[in-house]
Amino acid sequence: MAVTLGFVFATTSIPVGVWPAFAVMLLIVWGSAAVSGIGLRRVFLRSLIALPFALIALPTVFTKPGIAIFELDMIILTLTATEAGIEFFSSVLLKSWTSVTAAVLLTSTTRPMTLLGSLRWLRIPSILVAIVMLMYRYLFVLVDEAQRMLRARTARSAGIGPAAGGSILWRAKIAGGMAGSLFLRTLDRSERIYMAMLARGYDGRIIQARAERPLGMRQFTQIAVLFSVFVTVAALSRVLS
Fold first, then answer.
1. Residue 153: which of 180, 171, 168 has the closest Cα?
2. Measured distance CA(2)–CA(135) in Å, rounded
3. What is the gyration radius of the CA atoms in the chain, in angstroms?
4. Per residue of the chain (241 residues), what is the pLDDT tens digit?
5. What H or E segment, with its residue span, contains residue 79?
6. How far is CA 216 from the centre of its chain?
7. Which one of 147, 164, 179, 240 is CB 3.0 to 4.6 Å from 159, fit for a cystine?
8. H helix runs in the chain, sequence order
9. In sequence order, which residues have a C-beta less than 8 Å from that of residue 87 and are 6 or more positions away?
10. What b/e sequence results for 209-224 when a residue is b if at least 16 CB atoms lie within 10 Å of its CB, and e otherwise?
């Protein structure tokens, strides 16, 4: 957890357009993915979740002042892409993709309870750790509830022919009702779970049955070495910019 956070902070601190620094950080994270045993294809597919969020910065291609690269005629207006805009967007895209890849690698190689233990070791407020843990544990319950509702909808709306399944308006109405019903069921279930937790002595802390293994000198040395690499790359990127 600490190494991943250090990696993300170092990556996001790289100035725009310092491509050698981005190349080093990509080499680190994908080299780690290669030796993790997870599979590069699996890590790559999961890391693509960063792309929709990075596309938010796409308008900067046309709003950053600089040397014009090409023009995009939109009938009512003409957008001009600049060199500075493309450089800025490419840097944002690389920062997002590299950071998300590191997070994917962390969550794919570390058990959820171990991640929660690392959050406590980093002195994250216990209430936040409890929220994350409960969200993870009951996410699967919520998904199962939604799947049961979908099966029930399918069983009650069977039909044949080209009009089977209803119109788009009907589907939207049913989906809205299902979302509302799912929200009410989730709220009711959360109230019952919380009352049961209070009845069993819950005081805001998540207690694990097995004690967490403390870090040894070897682990602290590895963390220190990796942090030194991250700081060096971030510092040199400032010099190169």
1. 171
2. 22
3. 24
4. 889 999 999 999 999 889 999 999 999 999 999 998 888 898 999 888 888 888 888 888 888 888 888 777 777 777 888 888 889 999 999 999 999 999 999 988 888 878 887 887 788 887 787 788 778 778 888 888 888 888 887 777 655 555 555 677 877 787 788 888 888 888 888 888 888 888 888 776 666 655 566 778 888 898 899 999 999 999 998 888 7
5. strand 78-82
6. 29
7. 164
8. 2-12, 19-36, 40-47, 50-54, 60-63, 83-109, 112-121, 126-156, 168-199, 217-240
9. 16, 17
10. eeeeeeeeeeeeeeee
What does the block give as tokens for 157? 């709306």
3-class DSSP state of 171: helix
Tokens of 163: 């009009």
Q: Amino acid letter at 78?
A: T
User: In 3D, which of 119, 115, 111, 117 has the Cα closest to residue 207?
Assistant: 117
Structure tokens at 85: 């805009």
Structure tokens at 203: 């005081």
Answer yes or no: are the C-beta atoms of 81 and 70 closer than 8 Å.
yes
Contact call for residues 11 and 95 (beta carbons, < 8 A): yes
Q: Which residues pair with 82 in a beta bridge?
A: 68
